[in-house]
Design goal:
The chain is built from eight helices and six strands; from the N terminus they run βαααααβαβαβαββ. The chain has two domains: about 140 residues, HAD superfamily/HAD-like (Rossmann fold), CATH 3.40.50; about 60 residues, no CATH class. The chain is about 40% helix and about 10% strand. The chain has a six-stranded parallel beta sheet, with helices on both faces. Helix 6 links the parallel strand 2 and strand 3. The protein is α/β, with parallel strands linked by helices and about 220 residues long.
């Protein structure tokens, strides 16, 4: 599935790829609607419908991922709610071993995430996942989500890489399509981003990882003497 011999850089998503998307789905589909319903004295189902409509209208844009935007829209401190519920954040099984193997192989490892910097900070604090990366990049730094060509152009400008010898792993099909369109040579999806849900039936034309143990990079050759 992964042609390691022709890859020198790994561009890796966070939520749904390295971290279990079950947390974010629970946060936005259950916890935030309950908090909004309580704050506004309305039924949870009405709150869920209102928030669902707002989220749908901003899907795929930087607003969709922006905690400041949603704090203003919902009149809730979303960053504080993230910190309050951080104990639910989980690394996907096998992801840490895979990241360590990538580091040991000598490849450059870059996190590319649409997560807002405050959300990224909470998840780094909870998991320590940053220790496996050369660089952490939030799309908010560039003012463009990963679904946009502008993100990849800005990434190339700030952290030059060879697209043809780079691997992109992400659970979002629009992001994978944007990366492929930019020229990234090795593009891989995730079969089950949320551990509480069944495997996805559709991952586009992209190969999909189920278990990281099945796609470990080869160990570097060590010469004696």
């Amino acid at each position: 599935m992964i042609d390691w011999a022709n890859i020198d850089t790994a561009l890796l998503d966070m939520d749904g790829t390295l971290l279990d998307l079950a947390y974010d789905n629970w946060f936005w589909q259950r916890f935030v609607p309950e908090e909004y319903a309580r704050a506004n004295h309305i039924a949870r189902d009405k709150a869920l419908a209102l928030i669902g409509d707002w989220i749908h209208r901003h899907h795929g844009t930087l607003n969709w991922y922006c905690l400041d935007f949603w704090s203003d829209e919902l009149k809730l401190d979303i960053a504080a709610l993230k910190r309050q519920t951080g104990e639910r954040i989980r690394i996907r099984p096998g992801a840490e071993e895979w990241l360590q193997a990538l580091r040991d192989s000598g490849r450059r490892v870059v996190m590319v995430t649409n997560a807002h910097p405050q959300a990224l900070a909470v998840k780094v604090e909870r998991t320590g996942i940053d220790r496996y990366f050369d660089t952490l990049v939030s799309s908010h730094e560039y003012g463009a989500a990963k679904e946009s060509p502008a993100f990849w152009q800005a990434l190339q400008q700030h952290h030059p890489f060879n697209p043809g010898t780079s691997l992109l792993v992400d659970d979002s099909l629009p992001v994978l399509e944007a990366g492929e369109h930019y020229g990234i040579g090795h593009v891989v999806s995730i079969l089950r981003p949320d551990s509480s849900l069944p495997a996805r039936a559709h991952t586009g034309h992209f190969p999909a990882i189920d278990r990281y143990q099945d796609v470990m990079p080869p160990a570097p050759v060590r010469h004696s003497g």
